[in-house]
Design brief:
By secondary structure, the chain is an alpha+beta fold. Helix content is 37%, strand content 23%.
Amino acid sequence: MSAVVARFARILPRTLGTRTFAVKTTVREDGIDDTIIEELEALYQSRSEPLLGPYESIQANRSVIELWKQQKLAEMNEQPVDMKAFEKEVIKKYSVTPKPNDVDRKDSSDDIRITGTPEMLWSLDLNVPYEEFRRLAKKTLVVKRTVQMTRLGKLPSMYALVVVGNGNGSAGYGEGKANDAAKAVMFATRNAIKAMNHIPRYDDRTIFHDIEHKFKATKLVLWARRPGFGCRVAPIIHEICECIGIQDLAGKIHGSRNPMNVIKTVFEALKTQRVPSDLAKARGLRLIDVNHTYYQGITPTRSGRPKF
């Protein structure tokens, strides 16, 4: 082996055997140029450092990548969105504060916190518009400690039942369980918002007719009342009426007065109302509200005088 070939073999690694052979074929009998040797030494030294393309290092080429994104957005006729400015606009428009870091919720990018209550977080999975969500009223009616007995011992947890309504005929209740009361209330609130349904009301103040309904060991009787009568019912039913928007109602509870059963009985009873408009459509008849047509919304008495 000549001195030049030995020098090539010492410079080039074994993985570059093909290149070594290519260089050997270019060697002439009369000698070789020293510049080729210097280029090969520089190539071998560069092999010890990682070879990165112009866009393989994100940190080193962040400005180039951002410029590329701006150009692509300009080609698609779209303006780039500044997220910080967008968050400031939302906070200014809706008077809200950012979501706290200690509350871990699904779809956190779509959550907005309202007035410091972690359970009142708006997200897309609630299926409620944001403007309507801000007007919801929340009533925490039941919070208690429960224990599950297992072979490993007692497993304590907290149970909460929450009623949510907009005060305009839509309400729902939800249940939640967690290790502490705050999380249980939060889960119950979100379940209540998802379970909101429309509840029919007569004249937007009372029920259409008297109701008798039984749920398990609880029997509930509700009576429709005249304007200005008020809600003369049990305190727990009074809270539900505030969430729904019922102003005139009378009621009585017979049997079990378990708060959980009472709440479920009230919602089931209100859903069983027979609305006159639906009955008229089913029978093919024309419906006229006599109270509004002849008495201008004033309930008449037996003596014939209007009673306010």
